[in-house]
Amino acid sequence: MWKFIHHWLNPHCIECQENNERARWCESCETLKQQLAIVNHNNELLMNRLLEKPEKELDKPPVEITRPRTLSWNIRKQMLEQEDREKARLMREAPSINELEKELGVSRE
Known about the structure:
The chain is mainly alpha-helical. Helices cover 67% and strands 0% of the residues. The chain has two domains: 2-50, no CATH class; 73-103, no CATH class. It has helices spanning 2-9, 14-24, 27-51, 73-93, 97-104. The longest helix is centred in the middle third of the chain and has 25 residues, at 27-51. It starts with a helix and ends in a 5-residue tail after the last helix.
């Protein structure tokens, strides 16, 4: 009741104005204002980046597009057989385990 009478008699009191300003100020509101300013700045940068005119691209030579070749079964079969022959030749020419053990001076016995 006292506040009402005081405000009614002295509507522009300095103390009342300071109290009103303190009541209006809120730390979380200030934080939100700062965050909003940051987001607005980022949005402005993004829009400027999106709306800027692209630089002219240099003339690049066209890239040749090669279609995948399908191999007939006969050709594929010959390729697989050739690979198997090569593997078998390498296995024949590879030194045996016994030879490697003798060379290193290690014996299983």
